[in-house]
Input
Amino acid sequence: MTVLRCRGLSRSFGALRAVADVDLDVAPGARYGLIGPNGAGKSTLFKLVTGVLRAHAGTVELDGRDVTRLSEVRRSRLGMAQTLQHASLFGSMTAAQTVALAVQRHGVDAADRRRISPLPRRQADVWERAERLLADIGLAGRGRVAVPSLSHGERKQLEVALALACRPRLLLLDEPAAGMSAAERARLVELLRGLPREVTVLFVEHDLDLVFELADAITVLHLGRVLLSGSPADVRASERVREAYLGTRRRAELFTAPGGPDVPAGA
Amino acid sequence: MTAVDSAATVDGTAPVPARRLRRFGPLIAAAALLVLAAVPLFLAPFATTTLSRILVFALFAVSLDLLVGITGLPSLGHAAYFGVGAYAAGLVSIHVTAQVPGPLLVGAGAGALAAGLTGWITVRSHGVFFLMLTLAIGETIEQLANTWESVTGGANGLTGIRSARFAGTPLVVAGYTYWYVLAVFALGFAIIWLVARSPFGAALRGIRDNEPRMRAVGYPTALYKYAAFVLAGGVAGMAGAALVAQQRLVTPADLGFLTAAFALLAVVIGGAGTLWGAGIGAALVIVVRDALGPSMGGHGTLLLGLVFVLVVYLLPRGAAGLRLPLGLSRVRSAVFKAPRGGPR
Output
């Protein structure tokens, strides 16, 4: 049984095959890393999984259920939650109000899958849960702060709190550590490690140290295709991965292939 | 932090001066309602009539603010639902009953129905396309009112509307009509205000701020926008019914572009998203157009244009952004450090 299962997933933009025939199996409770050079198709693959983009071919299954044709909103109701690469939040809200939006939609706990109520009843529960999520993520006492006044790292943390408030089965993180300070990054790692095993995590990350620190399985994408899927040790040992990142043998691709490989920091 | 504390936090997300204001919010609202209710006892009938007009237009502007300020849908065709509500209330008053809740309910229903029929396409468009679509719908409905003479009376307007009756007594005196309009205004305002501060209203603000993110969080945003659109149409229809009770005449101009544009102007002048600001803006628009306009040889619109330019440059947050100079520095820091926002 897999939480997320993709088969033959493909998506093109004009002549560019951004994602081509990708298979992905994410086991329950996995901390699954998705890596690859810039332009490898990681973000596109993410969007195909979350439903922001429609696949041109292939299927996406969540908990054995085919969700390929379901909208982003339906997938969210089924337990997918995501954070976006560029913290994309609500400019007129405070941190607590932001998280409360997701809490009121997805309920305070498993027993409470209440949808919107016309009257602000039981709002105290919603706010309490929002404050607790903020505290868990390391934003205790920052609930009243306006989102535009948060630091970049805090906004990334808030992204994660917002996604967790959706009470996901599958948590998709798009470059969660990008732009974070060392301290914030350490706290993020601690938080992701501390997540209950019911939550499966699939994350894209450029910081390979963080990937190897966290991931128990890794897929390497290159030019829209799966280069390698395996354990962190397999990936570390792979000559082909090194080539994809450093381009030793296939340097010519830098100039011929669309979105060719480059060298990310920490590679 | 206890549950009670966090609830207080949320209500207290606003900066300190605003929070203090909020604590007195119900008191201020009650006082304002009391003053407004007492007005016809002291003012001349003409001034009372002008105030009725203001209340009608204010309710219309407040319903538009739900779209513009709360949901982020700047509609140029909102007058269509105001007008449809007015025509429906007028026709019911003529042919069926002028007994008080009747025309009001029909007007609200007709406004909501018209918004329901036209809204599903419009709320799925964005930005300029939304503006253009709502403009086109508004113009189409105005044309319909102009040409469907057998029903609407064409360009002459719908005349011969009986005055509203309350418990069998016709409300012919300006003061009684005013109280009726005030009651409709209070009801409509309360509906919009409650919706805006409910969890549903919070979701609408989220959509205004960042619609793709709201979808990612699991909100069917088109449905939410549609619900807001229909609700705003219904309350605009209520305002239309109040218009009928007040002037006992509906013309195609009431659902035309100029009416829609004036309402948008009122929302911007008052400060979009504050609801009560839209009421202030509406008062300003009506006073300039109806009270000052005639003495300026019909150049009232020009003055409104000037006011609009000044407001946009000097008060980017509208009249609602104005505060007493007393706490100016605190307010300024509040404006830049804390969001307005919070369930109102």
Residues 45-71 of chain B form the longest helix (27 residues). Confidence is low (pLDDT under 50) at residues 1-18, 324-344 of chain B. The interface with chain A takes residues 1-4, 6-7, 9-10, 12-13, 194-195, 197-200, 202-203, 205-206, 208-210, 212-221, 337-343 of chain B (CB under 8 Å).
